[in-house]
Amino acid sequence: MLDFFAIFSKGGIVLWCFQGAGVSESFAGPVNALIRSVILQERTGNSSFTHNALSLKYKLDNEFELVFVVGFQKILTLTYVDKFIDDVQLHFRDRYKNELGQKGALKFLVNHFEFEDDFSRLLREAEGGSIARPQKPMRTYNESQKSQKTVKSMIETKGGDKGKEQTGKKNKQSPKPQKPKKKENRVWEMGGTSSKDLDYSETNSNGSYSSQGQDNEAPAEPVRINFYPENIIKSFNKKKNCRKGFGGMFGMLKGLVGSKTLTQQDMEPILEKMKDHLIAKNVAADIASQLCDSVAKKLEGKVMGTFTTVASTVKQALQESLVQILQPKRRVDILRDVLEARAQRKPFVITFCGVNGVGKSTNLAKISYWLIENGFTVLIAACDTFRAGAVEQLRTHQRRLNSLHPPEQHGGHPVVQLFEKGYGKDAAGIAMEAIAYARNQCFDVVLVDTAGRMQDNAPLMTALAKLIAVNTPDLVLFVGEALVGNEAVDQLVKFNQALADHSMSDHPRLIDGIVLTKFDTIDDKVGAAISMTYITGQPIVFVGTGQTYSDLRSLNARAVVNALMKA
Length: 567
Prior knowledge:
Elements: E1 4-9, E2 14-19, H1 28-39, E3 48-51, E4 54-61, E5 66-73, H2 81-95, H3 97-100, H4 107-110, H5 116-129, E6 201-203, E7 209-211, H6 230-256, H7 264-280, H8 285-299, H9 310-326, H10 334-343, E8 348-354, H11 360-373, E9 378-383, H12 390-404, E10 416-419, H13 427-441, E11 445-450, H14 458-471, E12 475-481, H15 486-501, E13 513-517, H16 527-536, E14 540-544, E15 552-553, H17 557-565
Parallel strand pairs: 8-11, 8-12, 9-10, 9-11, 12-13, 13-14
Antiparallel strand pairs: 1-2, 1-5, 3-4, 4-5, 6-7, 14-15
Helix pairs in contact: 2-5, 7-8, 7-9, 8-9, 9-17, 11-12, 13-14, 14-15, 15-16
């Protein structure tokens, strides 16, 4: 029932693999997709991954830098997979502990790992234990307790209690109350009834009193009662004396020197504080929780280095994960792509989308200025046919940009033009006409401005999906604010979902990159950058840092992470 099982190192060396009977396709494709989309992107908080028709479960062994992956058809419900992959990990570690403990990457190439027999035995045990037990047959009515009750026992009386069958006499006479006995005088067991009989002291010659039967020469010593055995008391006193001389030094070294294996219990309080810190820096709550879970799985089982604490180890791992998330898994080089499109004599098309009021038109003008500065001609397509003043705003930007770069400096041709058809028209049709016009007039870049829309507005989301599906732009940029927190996740998820649902292709076109606006207003609360890149897996292409055309920057991942981790 399993398609494959693979054990490989984090360096990419396959140690052992299994392929199910009748499976002809190689498992390299699903495993490579898992490495690219999960392991390299620091998304190991969830132990499952879906690739086409396969469902993959994986487990990381951080002590020996190994990855265990099992794949099966996602239409199957295999309840034993989680326990099975744990058993395989433990048996593989125990069997090849010496080989895996060797230093250097050559240990994986020199040693030969034979694991077929153990794997087959563990698989048989797992599949045998998961066979559903036959259900217990339902009892008949005569076998139930309800059938044994009488009708009278189920009738409620006026007082609220159910009536009970009378098995004895109808009226039982209550016993008569007995009179209390007369209190008798107390008799002292020591004998005697007078005070003289109770006096056991004697008078000395000097007039003082002493107890009978005791020596009057020396006072009696107080009696000490030991509740602990003598050997425990000696051991305690010995440890106490040792701590007096060496407690300070050894206590300091114990806090500094790390020579233990990290466990979930060690990291849990620190990760909880880290999660609260990330949420306070505007990271979405779900994303912060997933990041901490990913770091916990990445560190669990690792042996701490010398003179390192758990807090510093967890913080360093979290910083590395955040930098990895912000660094794109694919490079977005607009200038290179524009040059390639120019060589093919076609315009490079960029579509801007996003919610209302985030600054799509303003940042479109900034990117136009950046492209003009790099020697390209730009055509702006006014496809926002809903908002009043949208076309006039773009016309103002066009006039100002042409004033900064007069046509006389470019052979009498304006470097930026506006293509508009007014209001109330079909946005997809306007974009198609603009692309055709740019191809005929040899424009290098077409920037398509779309109407702002909320992610819950189904008609407008359908129109956006139609525009992208019909015109197939080279780059789809989502424009979002740096001020949002949890809302960024909802916006991006629903925008991507709408593009996928209304696409006519088997491989729908989704968001390719992000433009983060108003980045100069958030100080060190840069968590929106983490939320947006984590949820889409796409890079932040530009960051808006002001109101002028030159206030456009590329994202510095390490600077953002340093600001995020600053207390």
